[in-house]
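Chapter summary example: a protein plus magnesium ion.
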Amino acid sequence: MLALEVENIVKRFVDDSEPVPLWQRLLGRRPRQVAAVRGVSFQVPEGEIFGILGPNGSGKSTLIRVIATLLLPDEGTVRIFGHDVVRERTAVRQLINRVSVEAAFFKKLSAMENLMYAARLYGLPVKEATARAGAILDRLGLPRKKRVIPLEELSRGQQQKVAIARALMTNPRLLLLDEPTTGLDPKSKREVQEFILEAQREHGATVILTSHDMEEAERLCRRVAFMDEGRFVALGTPAELKAQFGAHPEQSLEAVFLACTGKGLGDEAEADRVLEEVSA
Ligand SMILES: Nc1ncnc2c1ncn2[C@@H]1O[C@H](COP(=O)(O)OP(=O)(O)O)[C@@H](O)[C@H]1O
Ligand SMILES: [Mg+2]
């Protein structure tokens, strides 16, 4: 069964970098629009972890927000387990959950309290919620005494794991993770990645994640799409993409991205390193 079907999604925003002066607006000039997503199509079968990779500003978060029913598409359709995100928003919302980089939390509340709060929002009975929160925190490996202290006293990695744990409270069939490991140190990153893999295995959820970490994508995703300037410029398993762009199997996906788009991901130093790797 298909968990997600995205067809020709276009999403435009008003370009507020050049505001239209009032007198021009009175003459009928409309503000310029820029398309953040320019006709993206793809399908994801149930149970897959699918990665959307691209540099900052390539449209990843906008696409995720359209899939998550938080933004209306200007063109195209998205179906989640057959339900249309625009016409069947309520049904869709019961099937999905989204975790974004800037995960909103109650930092003064503990991990346990945050999970219980999420459960209340979704109308889960208290007894069931307590049991499920306990089980999820066990799996997350958060020691008992850390579950009851304010979230702000946990490491960033632990906080991010709690954010994912909170999304799992509602047993989503489609989990949307927008840059789940951005800004984490390598060790926390590893732990969060482990947790995503485990959660996917245990809940059987389908996962769509965005990243600009190619190593992460290779570790977690069965297939990935390269996104650049609002478009998917390549899509396949990491091995397929390497073959398509003439990279060795042991070369990094970053090199493949560079070969495909002429761009690096992430920071300059990283791009230099990749350039060296490609020209070597
Ligand atoms: N609410 C918004 N209003 C105007 N422009 C936006 C808005 N959200 C995103 N954009 C623009 O759309 C483009 C894609 O942004 P985004 O989807 O956040 O990319 P990414 O997540 O890949 O970094 C960027 O140029 C960004 O400035
Ligand atoms: Mg983003």
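Key point: The first strand starts at residue 2 and ends at 14.
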